[in-house]
Design goal:
heterodimer, A: 114 residues, mainly beta, seven-stranded mixed sheet, four-stranded antiparallel sheet, B: 113 residues, five-stranded antiparallel sheet, globular
Chain lengths: 114, 113
C-alpha cells in the first residue's frame, strides 16, 4: 500500500516569492493535515482538510493557506516568503472519521529561503 | 504554553536494555495519545497509540503506559536495538483523535551496541 507522497522533496526560494507544496494521501484517507517543523521545535500544526473543507486551523498567519481536491490530494501555499519560513513541511493523512485512527506522515518538503 | 512536554532531549541506552521515554501533558481534555519515531530525512513513523480508556497498550517490543491522574505517559522499548536510535515524538489530541495532534519536541534515543 503506497504511503503519503510529498513533492517536491527540496525547494529553494528567495524572500518575497511564493511556493506551493503538494501532498497525496494514502488511498482511502480523507483527512490531510499539514505541519511545520523547525530546528529544536516539535511539529507545529498548520491546518487540516477533510472532504475538501478546512476542518481545523493552527496559529499561523494568513500567508499560509491550503486546499484539498475531490481525490483527497492537498496543496499548501505560502505567499510572500520570509526567512523564518525555512522549515520541513510535513503532510499527514488519516481516515478522518470519528474514531481513534493514527495519522501517517510523508517524508516532507524541506523549504529553504535565501 | 507547551501542552505536551518531553523533558529529556536525549537518552542513551545499552543494546538489549530497556529504553523508557517519558511525556507529560497539561490539557485534561486529551484522550488519545500516540508515539512516533523519526529518522533523519524521513517523516515521522507511527509506532503505537493509546486511548484514555486504557492504561497500557503493547505492540511487540513497544509498550505505552498512561497515568491519567499524573497526566503522564511513557514508552518502553524492550529490548532496545541499535535500529531504534531515532527521535521519538509524543503526541496527543482531544475528542477521540478528531482534533489536531499536539506534539512534544522529541527525545533523541541512542542505542549503543
Amino acid at each position: 500500500k503506497a504511503g503519503v507522497t510529498q513533492t517536491p522533496r527540496y525547494l529553494i526560494k528567495t524572500r518575497g516569492q511564493q511556493v506551493t507544496l503538494s501532498c497525496s494521501p494514502i488511498s482511502g484517507h480523507r483527512s490531510v493535515s499539514w505541519y511545520q517543523q523547525t530546528p529544536g521545535q516539535g511539529l507545529q500544526f498548520l491546518f487540516e482538510y477533510f472532504s475538501e473543507t478546512q476542518r481545523n486551523k493552527g496559529n499561523f498567519p494568513g500567508r499560509f493557506s491550503g486546499r484539498q481536491f475531490s481525490n483527497s490530494r492537498s496543496e499548501m501555499n505560502v505567499s510572500t516568503l520570509e526567512l523564518g519560513d525555512s522549515a520541513l513541511y510535513l503532510c499527514a493523512s488519516s481516515l478522518g472519521g470519528y474514531s481513534n485512527q493514527p495519522q501517517h506522515f510523508g517524508d516532507g518538503t524541506r523549504l529553504s529561503i535565501l | 504554553d507547551q501542552q505536551v512536554k518531553q523533558n529529556s532531549p536525549s537518552l542513551s541506552v545499552q543494546e538489549g536494555r530497556i529504553s523508557i521515554l517519558n511525556c507529560d501533558y497539561t490539557n485534561s481534555m486529551f484522550d488519545y495519545f500516540l508515539w512516533y519515531k523519526k529518522y533523519p530525512a524521513e517523516g515521522p513513523t507511527f509506532l503505537i497509540s493509546i486511548s484514555s480508556i486504557k492504561d497500557k497498550n503493547e505492540d511487540g517490543r513497544f509498550t505505552v503506559f498512561l497515568n491519567k491522574s499524573a497526566k503522564h505517559l511513557s514508552l518502553h522499548i524492550v529490548p532496545s536495538q541499535p535500529g531504534d536510535s531515532a527521535v521519538y515524538f509524543c503526541a496527543a489530541s482531544a475528542s477521540g483523535g478528531n482534533t489536531p495532534l499536539v506534539f512534544g519536541k522529541g527525545t533523541r534515543l541512542s542505542v549503543i551496541a
